[in-house]
Amino acid sequence: MALTDEQITGLEEKANDIRISIIDIVEDAGSGHVAGPLDMADIFAVLFFHTLRHDPKNPSWPERDRLVLSNGHICPVLYAAMAYSGYFSVEELKTLRQFGSRLQGHPHRDFLPMLETSSGPLGLGLSQAVGMALADKIDHGLTSARRIYALLSDGELEEGNTWEAAMLAGKEKLHNLVAVIDRNNIQIDGYTENVMPLEPLSDKWRAWNWHVIEIDGHNMEEIADSFEAAKSIFGKPTIIIAHTIAGKGVKEFERDYRWHSQIINKEKEKMALKELRTLGGKIEKE
Amino acid sequence: MLNLELKLNTKLFDKKTEQVPIRNGFGEGLLEAGQKNKNVVGLCADLVESTKMNLFAEKFPNRFIELGVAEQNLAGVASGLATMGKIPFISSYATFSPGRNWEQIRTTICYNDRPVKIAGSHAGVSVGPDGGTHQGLEDIAITRVLPRMIVISPCDAIEAKKATLASIDTGTPVYIRLAREKTPVMTTFETPFEIGRAQIFWKSSKPKVGIIATGALLYQALLAAKELKGKVDVEVMNLSTIKPLDEKAIMELAQKAGRIITVEEHQIAGGMGSAVAECLSQNCPVPMEFIGIRDQFGQSGTPDELITHYGMDVKSIIKAVEKILKR
């Protein structure tokens, strides 16, 4: 079902709120990542406010879809999406990375039990999502309506573990599994194609018996459509290669790998927040 | 003398005493666990027969997953299954799991608090002819440092079966160490077993030395005790659960005997003996000797040749007793 114009505007507003919070809380924390969280804000907005079957007031609802964030370092976007959808207060976002906070530097279930997994070390999430999808297959065969979503970075595709998981998902024909790759082309040491070339990326997944969809990761309609299309695919898992712009929403950060984990200071925060609050200068008042 | 209260195998010193691979006990235990609890699932990385998971796989094909030679995935997939309420057992050789996939076990299982059960077979040098690459000598060290992990090193096939069955109810990650081909059966199905409980297999009224052994080498320790009978009174403890450590029982033995020797088919660094030393040095310091591998890798040979070569045979244990008595 296509999104209405009103839905698209609503999702864009949510994504903008999420981006503002990311800048705000990462600067407050004095450390953390911005490029990945900013570029995944649109996908998180669609997931949390449109696609996911979940209940923020009842996080342990057994029938919920499962969301596995593999590259845990982009957790500011996860925390912000959770806060705006009502898992906890937006106010709590300010505790990111502080001692005793539920919002650990990388997601940790001991502190925030409503998370599906603790994560951070790269290359582990797809295996866990495959395990969840397998459990669902053992219990419900092909009849389950539950979806397992795994969110991966492109850099972590360099981890061999990811491909071990990809092979198994193809072998087991896990139709209930959808993985999304944040194809922003950057990692800590530079551009992925310089550090360790990943292309031809879609061919690689096809070879492991995955259904491949490529989308513009900032186009709300394409994002929502791809999740919808994945539901009609049987006999194989689906991979959505989402082409994104690292640091999306703040011109100075965009496409520059140095902003993968560079610390933002007060001055950069002010500039970034102004840009986001004025929608890139489209409106005057912040 | 043998502690008959524990209903041990009374024929254990007979030349023709029954010998069974410890991993057989795991296979039988897993099969029974599968019958008892429908949430039990089995995952293997191309070693189904070798780790004795085949019994479970044949009985419950829908609850068995073959992942191919991919131990890192083995741990992560098991974590995901546990997230959905399953009780996954993963099996491979100890050098590969928990060896190769240690970080996956740390992050996705222990840090993530998922009750995955890890069976590491071919631990110790007694694997024999395969040689050093396949002889897991570091697995106790790398598992016992992980928060939440329970570490069990059964002494024989029957104890391995009981440990496997008991592990499904802990709600925690568990590592079960499976060693050695033909291992004398020391216990019986009537011998009590509880995770975290050490047992005195050889008793003395006034012991001068306490020998604490884990795994199949417990048999060598018992043989040493028998040989020393009438010369030096010793007690022999079966410490099959290395974590959590039965500190009370270990301290009682140390207080009673005043000297402790630990015996394990594992690197001395970080192994069971180290765990015992951590406990005693803080609570009840007594002289200690360690029988185990001294910072070396294994090699090909028969189990007896290797145990003798690396100084873990009966003679070496008796020598350690004589040495500690002179200290």
Model description:
Chain A has 286 residues and is α/β, with parallel strands linked by helices. Helices cover 40% and strands 12% of the residues of chain A. Chain A has a single domain (5-277), classed as Thiamin diphosphate (ThDP)-binding fold, Pyr/PP domains (Rossmann fold), CATH 3.40.50. In chain A, the strands form two sheets. Chain A has a five-stranded parallel β-sheet, sandwiched between helices. Chain A has a two-stranded antiparallel ribbon with strand order 4-5. In chain A, a hairpin with a 2-residue loop joins β4 (186-187) and β5 (190-191). Chain A is globular and about 50 Å long. The model of chain A has no long low-confidence stretch (mean pLDDT 95). Chain B has helices at residues 22-36, 54-59, 71-83, 95-100, 102-111, 139-144, 157-167, 218-228, 247-257, 272-283, 303-309, 314-326, and strands at residues 19-20, 40-44, 64-66, 87-93, 117-123, 150-152, 174-179, 183-184, 199-202, 209-213, 234-238, 241-243, 260-267, 288-293. In chain B, the strands form three sheets. Chain B has a seven-stranded mixed β-sheet, sandwiched between helices. A five-stranded mixed β-sheet of chain B has the order 9-11-10-13-14, with helices on both faces. The chains are: A alpha/beta (286), B alpha/beta (327). Chains A and B meet through α5 and α6 of A and α3 and α5 of B.
